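Hello, quick one for you while I still have it in my head. Could you read through the record and tell me how the tokens relate to the sequence? No rush at all, and the record is pasted right below.
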Amino acid sequence: MMETAGSGVGGVELAAVILTRNEAKHIGDCIATLGFADAVVVSDSYSDDGTVAVAQNAGAIVQQRDFDNFAGMRNAAMERVDADWIFFVDADERIPPELGEEARRVIRQGPEVGWWVPRLNYIAGRLVQHGGFYPDYQLRLLRRDRARYDPGRPVHEVVLLEGPSGQLKHEMIHYNYDDWGQFHAKQRRYARFEGRILQERGVKPWPHKFVRFPLQEFWRRYVTLQGYKDGWMGLKLAVLLGFYYGFMPHWYLVSET
């Protein structure tokens, strides 16, 4: 695995870290919202679309590392960025000023070692407020010496905290999928990751799972999490995520064995 040497960050209180792979479209606008941080670090997986140049021109420090999985990328960034606290931000997310101010305030209070951030999700240009998409809390503001990402969860990462957590009040904005083509491509990639995890755990692709799991996920999204309140958008997302979360991982489990 290749990495650039040195973090370029020296003993700051709060650093914002962005993982990237071909995010030239979003990275400049993202960095522009991170002025609350003492340093902005882009951990890039060898983009070839100009992401690095845009990030550097916007004032970010750029590290490069071969991509293994999301948990591995985040843990590597936490090891290399010399900051007391790290705020992980995705390139398609934006941090409003009031959230940045709140983040700076709470890290000086204690005893929390991690903070959950509520997130507003725009999918294909439309705000989605049900079906699990709001408040969509993300554990992103982390005290670096008290947090790690679970290596057993390489996708849809899970943070392991050594101490209590809290919830921030102000929301970050997530431009989640520019269009439906991007949505399908990303969901297929996530499903393939999940299929590999199931394979490594020795899970068997029993036939009933191809029916039961998609229906369970659809019901969870549309009924339990009230996706129906988003109208046709909520129905479409519940159907698609039932397919991608419930059916496709087991399909990849079969097709790649």
Q: What stands out?
A: The first helix runs from residue 24 to 31. Residues 12-175 form a domain with the Spore Coat Polysaccharide Biosynthesis Protein SpsA; Chain A fold (CATH 3.90.550.10). The helical segments are 24-31, 51-57, 70-80, 97-106, 180-200, 209-224, 231-255.
